[in-house]
Structures are given as structure tokens and as C-alpha cells.
Amino acid sequence: MNSSYTQFDQDINKTISFVKVEYERDLHLLHRWMQEEHVIPFWKLNISLEKYKRHLEKFLNDQHQTLYLGCIEEIPMSYWEAYWVKGDIIEDYYPYDLFDQGIHLLIGEKEFLGKGYALPLLRAMVRFQFLTARTKKIVAEPDIRNKKMIHIFETCGFEPVKPIELPDKTGLLMFCHRENFERKWKHVFDTQRA
């Protein structure tokens, strides 16, 4: 699998990479992840394979977002939706900048849960998104009940802004500003090897 972004993370001593989702290759894997008990409450996509096929096709054809598999040592273990705020429902909830980006994620493989991978993965994705020079802010809106994920976003450098009522959940709008993120993680990125 050709990765779109790869980075060695010294905190976990492993290589993290993000690979664009491919319909044929990844359909069954992603559908299986959506049936996992830890995923269902927050993604609500524990639907039939036929329905999920249509969902994935629609999402892959949506030009305002890119879908990725997050990998550790080239093993796919997480799913990511990196999106432009412009064109997303979230654009109605705050005065966005044209180059603001947003992020959704889940860890699909159960054996990767509770191992301390969520923060390094999130940090890598945010760094990947900030490679777009004109992006100054990354947005997240985790389910307000998902305290673990909110804590990971905060540890990464996201700040809570306000609760927001989305069609499928009450989310917590969170912002990660480039300058704060780069200052917070400068010591990590300065010493990492490619």
C-alpha cells in the first residue's frame, strides 16, 4: 500500500502511516470495524454490507474529504476522515477560514485499543493536515459523551470551544491552532527521523 504520509514516532518507537482508502480493497475491513462494540455508539454505522457499500461509495466520491487507513508498522488499524470545513455541515457552526480542515477517526482493531496509540496517530494526522501551508486551524467535533477521545484531542493541542447540536449527535467543537500545535510538539518533530 502506498502511503500518503509516513512518520516515525519516537514515543511509541513505531512508524505511523496514512493510506488513502480504496473501495475494493478496504470495503470489508471498514464494514467489520463499524460492527465493533467500541465503534457502534459513536459512528452508528453498524448496518448491512449492502447499505455500507452505498455509504462508502458516497463518502469516497465526496470531494470535500479524503478517507484514510491509519497504519502502525504498515498494519491498517484505524480509519480517518480528513475534510475541508468549507462544504461540510460544520461550516454552519462557526465563522470558518477557507483553509480550515477537520478530522474524524476511529481505532478499528481491538488489539490496538488501550496501547497509547491514539495520541501519536492523531498528532501525526494533524501534522499531515498542517502540511497545507494555508491551513491555520484543525477542527474536531467528538461526541460530547466520548470523554476518552476528548481527552486525547485536548492532549494533542485541541481546545474546547462549545457544545454543538449536529444531526446525529451532540458534539464538542474543538480547535487546534497551528502555532500552538507546533510549539507544543516542536521537541517531538525536531528529533524525529523520516
TrEMBL record:
Occurrences of domain Acyltransferase MbtK/IucB-like conserved (ranges): 19-66
Pathway: Siderophore biosynthesis
Gene Ontology biological process terms in this record: siderophore biosynthetic process
InterPro entries: Acyl_CoA_acyltransferase (IPR016181), Acyltransferase_MbtK/IucB-like (IPR019432)
Pfam families on file: Acetyltransf_8
Origin: domain of life: Bacteria
One GO MF term attached to the UniProt entry: N-acyltransferase activity
Signal peptide: none
UniProt-listed PANTHER family: LYSINE N-ACYLTRANSFERASE C17G9.06C-RELATED
Functional description taken from the UniProt entry: Acyltransferase required for the direct transfer of medium- to long-chain fatty acyl moieties from a carrier protein (MbtL) on to the epsilon-amino group of lysine residue in the mycobactin core.
Name the UniProt record assigns to this protein: Lysine N-acyltransferase MbtK
Gene of this entry: rhbD
